[in-house]
């Protein structure tokens, strides 16, 4: 096992920078050309590209230093750099001058609610929470908000090991709304950064949970005098679009739509809305037809559907109001429903043209004017390729082809895509199978289900999150499946019913089912089918692991299918939704009144047969430790054996303790799933290679 541990450590996601080269491109547009910086095996290189001719020329590094992000500076600066907004003592400060005087910690200007800003995580990471601000095109005025959470119940956590070494634990308290609780409210206002003039927006205080609209791309300026806000009602049962006169603060509701389940304004509630506006026209996203599509409204009245069919719009890339066309990314136009394709459609609904013929997943970045598109496309077993396309989809030039040489030398093996039936016997579900580098088809391999199963995102998501690429086809940052495979496991990654990016009916399976039980059943059905086709998969040794919603799913799966799972690693789980974020239970079970205790795993603790490792952080202000300790309490009451590790000082991630927590997972799976003893004294490099 010693060699296997070494091979697993070599494929930790933190090592991707040294193993994967030329895989991502972020264009920086300057007039009619753009430049980009790319990591190569020889070090970073820079290239300038001239789209009109297709010329790609290596250049010296422009030396453009990335500005420290607002999470470090705690400031929001106007696009022209003339004005800077910060928050002090709950009040706005602009260019060093106080702009408000009546703010307070629980009724502050500019700041998110406690749930939205995760104050303990920010404190531990040395981050400053930047104000929520959107600048007008003139770079002079900005819209912000004031959040009132004085009436929101609090959550208290104890820090047993203060960083100053004091033996006396510290107490941390934050506002934390649970399902059915009073919610924080917000009001919005517009300030002139030069004069201090203030215009209050004439909308009554609105409730929200976790994220106010201003923090998630739901407030935008159309011009210097017009502001729009898309508001989701409690439980996201309805979406309401306001048009605001920035000169007076007057507001009117232009458009509203509701749903029996969730009124999505994008494929999921965690994404920026796919709604665009100009004058009296609104390009609106809705899944009313059973699939997520675009609709054109004029003066609040439906003019026509822009897209339709048994597929969905995944993202908006560019809207050309003058040319009357929209460029967007679709899902479902290929062999795999999760593969994205670049498409164009007329705003009059004249039809959809697919611009990327490759049956792969396409990640698109558009030029400011929408004439050019940088497209990085990939599939399992195919190295990512980045090309420049014009507005017809024609390839102008190839920019980069990923170099996976070092990755393959480290023992990486490309995942195998598969399609099987859900537990209903009819619905197709898709996934990836990761096998160890020394895989032998005549051998026998324990199975590890790397699960997430949350209703708001898929486990197979290929995207860029806050500038960080997430690619499950390579090192799988979301779960590290290739790393776990090196231990000698066959690792399964899949998305069952109840998860997004398919039809509304597919997603609605999890509505009212807080445990996403049918999605768990789909995992069991899928693994059984895979084993029937692949004799090397050992159904007598099936484990499951997950973090956050995946941690809760892993524990629930072990209780729901005690005859199937023999080992489970549950990390930082939101185990009981009645005590978790209000946005979660209220959005996926419905707003109050509801019984949010339904689906709690606690009454089923006596069903546990699998070996269980329960992990969580003492200072987790997302899935707070009481959620896991209630599980512990129920297991003790049922007199069940299990292993537990509560990490002092750790938030929703394990920070400096990550290497230890990971090694404990490896040891647990080696003993209870693989059936061997872990290598004695093995220690994972706590820097994961960064110190070398």
UniProtKB/TrEMBL annotation:
It comes from the Bacteria. Signal peptide: none annotated. Residues 131-382 form the Dipeptidylpeptidase IV N-terminal domain. Residues 59-82 are annotated as: Disordered. InterPro entries: AB_hydrolase_fold (IPR029058), Peptidase_S9_cat (IPR001375), Peptidase_S9B_N (IPR002469), Serine_Prot_S9B/DPPIV (IPR050278). Residues 483-673 form the Peptidase S9 prolyl oligopeptidase catalytic domain. SUPFAM superfamilies: alpha/beta-Hydrolases, DPP6 N-terminal domain-like. Pfam families: DPPIV_N, Peptidase_S9. PANTHER family: BLR1971 PROTEIN, PROTEASE FAMILY S9B,C DIPEPTIDYL-PEPTIDASE IV-RELATED. This is DPP IV N-terminal domain-containing protein. It comes from Streptosporangium fragile.
């Amino acid at each position: 096992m010693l060699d296997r541990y070494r091979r697993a450590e070599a494929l930790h996601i933190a090592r991707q920078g040294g193993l994967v080269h030329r895989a991502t491109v972020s264009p920086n547009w300057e007039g009619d050309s753009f430049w980009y910086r790319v990591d190569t095996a020889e070090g970073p290189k820079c290239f300038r590209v001239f789209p009109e001719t297709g010329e790609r020329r290596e250049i010296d590094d422009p030396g453009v230093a990335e500005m420290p992000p607002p999470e470090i500076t705690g400031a929001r600066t106007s696009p022209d750099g003339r004005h800077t907004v910060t928050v002090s003592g709950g009040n706005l400060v602009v260019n060093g001058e106080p702009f408000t005087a009546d703010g307070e910690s629980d009724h502050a200007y500019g700041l998110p609610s406690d749930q939205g800003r995760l104050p303990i995580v920010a404190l531990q990471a040395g981050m400053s929470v930047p104000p929520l601000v959107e600048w007008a095109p003139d770079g002079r005025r900005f819209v912000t908000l004031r959040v009132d959470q004085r009436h929101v119940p609090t959550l208290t956590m104890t820090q047993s090991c203060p960083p100053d070494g004091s033996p006396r634990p510290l107490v941390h308290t934050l506002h934390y709304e649970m399902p059915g609780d009073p919610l924080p409210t917000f009001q919005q206002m517009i300030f002139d950064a030069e004069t201090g003039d203030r215009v209050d927006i004439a909308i009554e205080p609105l409730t929200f949970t976790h994220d106010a609209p201003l923090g998630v791309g739901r407030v935008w300026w159309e011009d210097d005098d017009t502001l729009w806000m898309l508001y989701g009602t409690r439980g996201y049962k309805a979406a309401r679009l306001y048009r605001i006169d920035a000169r007076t603060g007057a507001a009117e509701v232009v458009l509203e739509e509701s749903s029996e389940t969730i009124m999505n304004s994008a494929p999921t509630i965690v994404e920026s809305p796919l709604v665009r506006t100009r004058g009296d026209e609104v390009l609106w996203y809705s899944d009313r037809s059973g699939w997520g599509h675009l609709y054109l409204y004029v003066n609040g009245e439906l003019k026509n559907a822009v897209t339709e069919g048994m597929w969905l719009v995944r993202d908006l890339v560019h809207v050309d109001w003058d040319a009357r066309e929209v460029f967007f990314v679709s899902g479902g136009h290929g062999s795999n429903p999760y593969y994205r394709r670049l498409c164009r459609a007329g705003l009059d609904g004249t039809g959809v043209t697919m611009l990327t013929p490759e049956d792969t997943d396409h990640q698109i970045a558009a030029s400011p004017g929408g004439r050019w598109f940088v497209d990085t496309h990939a599939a399992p077993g195919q190295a990512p390729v980045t090309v420049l396309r014009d507005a017809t989809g024609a390839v102008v030039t190839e920019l980069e082809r990923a170099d996976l040489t070092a990755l393959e030398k480290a023992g990486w093996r490309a995942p195998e895509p598969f399609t099987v039936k859900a537990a209903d016997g009819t619905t197709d579900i898709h996934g990836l199978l990761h096998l160890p580098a020394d895989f032998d088809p005549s051998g026998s391999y324990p199975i590890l289900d790397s699960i997430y199963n949350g209703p708001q995102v898929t486990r197979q998501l290929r995207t860029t999150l806050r500038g960080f690429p997430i690619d499950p086809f390579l090192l799988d940052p979301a779960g590290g499946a290739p790393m776990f495979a090196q231990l000698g496991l066959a690792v399964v990654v899949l998305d069952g019913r109840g998860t997004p990016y398919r039809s509304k009916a597919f997603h609605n399976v999890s509505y009212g089912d807080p445990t996403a039980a049918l999605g768990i059943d789909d995992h069991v059905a899928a693994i059984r089918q895979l084993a029937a086709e692949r004799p090397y998969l050992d159904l007598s040794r099936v484990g499951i692991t997950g973090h956050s919603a995946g941690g809760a799913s892993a524990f629930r799966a072990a209780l729901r299918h005690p005859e199937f799972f023999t080992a489970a690693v549950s990390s930082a789980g939101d185990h009981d939704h009645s005590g978790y974020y209000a946005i979660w239970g209220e959005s996926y079970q419905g707003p109050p009144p509801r019984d949010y205790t339904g689906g709690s795993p606690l009454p089923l603790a006596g069903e546990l047969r699998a070996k269980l490792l329960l992990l969580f952080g003492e200072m987790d202000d997302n899935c707070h430790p009481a959620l896991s300790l209630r599980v512990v309490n129920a297991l003790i009451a049922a007199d069940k054996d299990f292993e537990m590790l509560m990490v002092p000082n750790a938030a929703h991630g394990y920070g400096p303790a990550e290497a230890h927590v990971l090694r404990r997972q490896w040891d647990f799976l080696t003993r209870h799933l693989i059936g061997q003893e872990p290598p004695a004294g093995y220690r994972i490099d706590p820097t994961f290679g960064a110190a070398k």
